[in-house]
């Protein structure tokens, strides 16, 4: 209800706030997330250091997070001009592919001023063209395994780019009209707003910066780095291991799925609700490509032997996770886009005061976040090929559990504000959040 009141307030402000730099704040400090101003000050320092620490530990022979002193690299190993060329070249290539007039154009959800933004749906084309370019480069003899040596300078450079981008986003947001500002990132506290992001959908012309960063350079970069680790293994041992093939295959499936179903990202919390600030810029450009693939990097230095039965079990786990993840996400997207479609029309729903309905049967009647459950099962399957001897390859599944529990709580708060009593009824009908009978 508070959100709706703010929506109405912002729509009226939008009539006046177009030309002058905006200085108004839209929310009050009581609603701050991520530990408020203190969290927003510490996280931008702590997380970039965590990326560099994890990469260093992963490449060390012990690969132990408890190792003291930690195996930190000399500063000279953190910098290489080639990394700058590769990162700038990579972002330029992905921007060029984003702008290619191929694929369809889709509309996002209705914004506070009643308008809808248009988005190019050509992510899968971008992935395919990148794959062809990569194959040509490999065929011409490009030493792709060198990414293993270059990983720290690449990460430093990506972190630098995410800082520069966040500063640009923060500054330009003061010229955005009021209705284009996010409701959560405009408290008036510069550090907090820098972290959360002031502007909702910053664009340069038709180029949507948040949508581009969410799915292109980081996500595709992640699987390109994974392939680099596979090539490094081939250099060292003559052929890729089964564990490395599984990790590469699973994560490639995940990224391909995200780009194949690109349109679905238009209804996620990040695009609809969150501003574009340091959290997402750093998450998309540095955190995802350099920590989500730690398993492949771990396998280069710590080879694992995997039995056929073990591999079959892990493939089955990933398959089940993927099935739940895909089916539940597709069911909700289909329902939100067209509730009368034959695949969802038979499902039981409850009405809400907003006019939108909530599913209470099918996947969304099983638990309140079936998509998170599937995602978590996949996360576990990505770590298991690395064996049980180290905790480091399980970093992703541990971090992801924390992220999704926190995300679920944030979403719950938004839904309760949006749907009021209907949300409480839904929670009574579907009591478990992510894991049936457990959580
Ligand atoms: N790999 C990674 O790092 C990450 C992956 N993810 C994945 O991204 C995907 C999207 O996640 P996310 O954006 O967090 O959230 P969801 O896709 O789960 O969307 C939540 C929204 O769905 C709608 N909704 C909730 N319950 C119902 C219902 N019963 N019936 C109809 N609509 C409902 C509500 O929005 P409304 O009613 O307004 O439509 C709610 O705000 C997930 O699969 C998640 O696992 C997410 C974060 C990180
Ligand atoms: C620690 C830190 C800075 C966290 C920031 C969070 C981001 C890394 C994630 C927030 C939501 C994300 C999503 C995906 C990747 C990670 C981030 C950006 C996603 C693109 C992965 C692929 C999925 O299929 C997806 C498209 C559903 C998903 C959307 C959310």
From TrEMBL:
It is found in: Endomembrane system; Endoplasmic reticulum membrane; Microsome membrane. Gene3D superfamilies: 1.20.120.1630. The chain crosses the membrane at residues 34-56, 76-100, 121-141, 147-171, 276-294, 306-325, 379-405. It catalyses: 4,4-dimethyl-8,14-cholestadien-3beta-ol + NADPH + H(+) = 4,4-dimethyl-5alpha-cholest-8-en-3beta-ol + NADP(+); 4,4-dimethyl-5alpha-cholesta-8,24-dien-3beta-ol + NADP(+) = 4,4-dimethyl-5alpha-cholesta-8,14,24-trien-3beta-ol + NADPH + H(+); 5alpha-cholest-8,14-dien-3beta-ol + NADPH + H(+) = 5alpha-cholest-8-en-3beta-ol + NADP(+). It is an enzyme of class 1 (oxidoreductase). It holds the Pfam family ERG4_ERG24. The keyword Transmembrane helix applies. It is a multi-pass membrane protein. This is Delta(14)-sterol reductase TM7SF2. It comes from Cyprinus carpio (Common carp). The lineage of its organism: Eukaryota, Metazoa, Chordata, Craniata, Vertebrata.
């Amino acid at each position: 209800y508070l959100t709706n009141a703010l929506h109405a307030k912002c729509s009226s402000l939008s009539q006046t706030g177009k030309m002058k730099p905006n200085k108004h704040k839209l929310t009050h400090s009581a609603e701050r997330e991520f530990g408020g101003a203190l969290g927003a000050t510490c996280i931008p320092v702590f997380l970039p250091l965590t990326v560099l620490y994890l990469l260093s530990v992963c490449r060390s022979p012990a690969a132990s997070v408890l190792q003291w002193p930690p195996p930190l690299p000399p500063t000279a190993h953190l910098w290489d001009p080639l990394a700058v060329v590769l990162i700038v070249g990579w972002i330029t290539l992905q921007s060029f592919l984003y702008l290619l007039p191929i694929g369809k154009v889709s509309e996002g959800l209705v914004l506070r001023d009643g308008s809808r933004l248009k988005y190019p749906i050509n992510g899968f084309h971008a992935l395919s063209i990148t794959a062809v370019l990569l194959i040509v480069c490999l065929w011409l003899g490009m030493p792709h395994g060198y990414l293993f040596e270059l990983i720290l300078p690449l990460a430093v450079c990506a972190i630098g780019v995410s800082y520069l981008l966040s500063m640009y986003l923060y500054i330009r947001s003061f010229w955005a009209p009021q209705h284009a500002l996010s409701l959560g990132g405009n408290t008036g506290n510069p550090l907090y707003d820098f972290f959360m992001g002031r502007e909702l959908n910053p664009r340069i012309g038709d180029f949507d910066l948040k949508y581009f960063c969410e799915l292109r350079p980081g996500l595709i970069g992640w699987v390109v780095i994974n392939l680099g680790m596979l090539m490094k293994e081939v250099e060292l041992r003559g052929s890729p291991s089964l564990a490395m093939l599984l990790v590469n295959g699973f994560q490639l499936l995940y990224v391909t799925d995200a780009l194949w179903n690109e349109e679905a990202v238009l209804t996620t919390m990040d695009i609809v609700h969150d501003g574009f600030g340091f959290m997402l810029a750093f998450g998309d450009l540095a955190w995802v490509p350099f920590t989500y693939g730690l398993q492949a990097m771990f396998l280069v230095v710590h080879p694992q032997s995997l039995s056929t039965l073990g591999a079959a079990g892990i493939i089955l786990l990933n398959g089940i996770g993927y099935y739940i993840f895909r089916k539940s996400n597709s069911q909700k997207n289909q329902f939100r886009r067209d509730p009368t479609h034959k695949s969802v029309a038979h499902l039981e729903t409850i009405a809400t005061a907003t006019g939108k309905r909530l599913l209470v049967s099918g996947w969304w009647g099983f638990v309140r976040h079936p998509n998170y459950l599937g995602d978590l099962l996949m996360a576990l399957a990505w770590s298991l090929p690395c064996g049980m001897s180290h905790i480091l390859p399980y970093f992703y599944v541990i971090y992801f559990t924390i992220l999704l529990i926190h995300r679920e709580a944030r979403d719950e708060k938004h839904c309760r504000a949006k749907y009021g009593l209907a949300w409480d009824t839904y929670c009574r009908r579907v009591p478990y959040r992510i894991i049936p009978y457990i959580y």
